[in-house]
Amino acid sequence: MLKSINHIGIAVKDLDVSSALFSKIFKVDNMHFETVVEQKVKVASFKIGDVLIELTAPTDDSSPIAKFIEKKGEGIHHIAFESDNVNEELNELSEQGIQLINNQAQPGAHDMLIAFLHPKSTNGVLMELCQNK
Ligand code: ZN
């Protein structure tokens, strides 16, 4: 079951510039930084209430985030919903005809398992399912 919004992913070109900007806006002094090799992204994140904001920059030109920015520019990239069991969720949604980008959960930031649904199936909204390991 999808139970809450875990985080909102924002695509940015330059993580240093954007993390400084968001630190200023939200008065954040403990921004968390990490690189997710599997997703070819660098992430800077902080919490607003129970929701994480993840500033996400590409590590190279072949990163899906680089392609997103090239097509659409910087901005909101995805909304991530927390699940108890991402793989079970993917199977159910697939059976209901929802197109998936990932058929199986993959490693994501914050030591979570993640998978994306195809935005063609979800009114253009890129939705991620995530689960604590
Ligand atoms: Zn995410």
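^ zinc ion complex. Residues 7, 9, 54, 78, 80, 128 surround zinc ion (CB under 6 Å). The helical segments are 15-26, 64-72, 86-95.
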